[in-house]
Write a structure and sequence with these properties.
- It comes from Shimia aestuarii.
- GO terms for molecular function: dioxygenase activity.
- The protein folds into 3 domains: 59 residues, 2,3-Dihydroxybiphenyl 1,2-Dioxygenase, domain 1 (Roll), CATH 3.10.180.10; 52 residues, 2,3-Dihydroxybiphenyl 1,2-Dioxygenase, domain 1 (Roll); 37 residues, no CATH class.
- 26% of the residues lie in helices and 30% in strands.
- The radius of gyration is 19 Å and the shape is globular.
């Protein structure tokens, strides 16, 4: 028994049409499906909603719900804004830079390019306030992933005891954080 892949990831949106148009224009995602009901199928409670689905590539689907009868959406005030996000992979650094320039030309504030060694990322917010990351692989990704794989259990086990960042992979963000390792 094994999971095949993510079927879809769902977020809440403020305005379904604005969300579809923004993801189409900014990230070139196709609008693939809309479902609207007056009752929630899983709970049967009366609550009108619009559920929309966008093509995030390779069978990945990004979905949103607009819930007009619910209070305005918020976020967990105890979780830093940089934690909750969705990340999409792009082909290479040239594509990442092309997206960065496109987003900025359309008035979207973009943070990065951030060097994560294994991959490189830009960050921005959609019109609903969700943080979005675009990431491209580093040319040396495979070798670095092998290094990370070799220490993952040691890191996890140490963290679970100490709740302090293990130093097994300090090299990962050394360039980005200007640290000598």
């Amino acid at each position: 028994m094994k999971i095949e892949q993510i079927h879809h990831v769902a977020y809440r949106c403020k305005d379904a049409k604005e969300t579809v148009e923004w993801y189409g224009k900014m990230l070139n995602m196709d609008f693939i499906l809309a479902i609207a009901e007056d009752h929630v199928p899983s709970t049967h409670e009366p609550d009108p909603y619009m559920h929309l689905f966008l093509d995030a590539g390779n069978g990945n689907v990004l979905a949103f719900f607009e819930l007009p009868t619910k209070p305005e959406m918020g976020r967990d005030p105890n979780t830093p804004i940089w934690v909750q996000h969705i990340a999409f992979k792009v082909k290479d650094r040239a594509t990442l830079i092309e997206f960065k320039e496109h987003l900025e030309a359309n008035g979207v504030e973009v943070l990065g390019v951030t060097d994560h060694s294994i991959f490189h990322s830009i960050y921005f917010f959609d019109p609903n306030g969700h943080r979005v990351e675009l990431a491209c692989p580093d040319p040396e990704e495979e070798a670095m992933l092998k290094r990370m794989d070799e220490v993952k259990w040691d890191m996890l086990n140490e963290w679970s005891v100490t709740k302090k960042a293990p130093k097994h992979a300090d090299w990962l963000h050394a360039k980005e954080l200007n640290k000598d390792i």
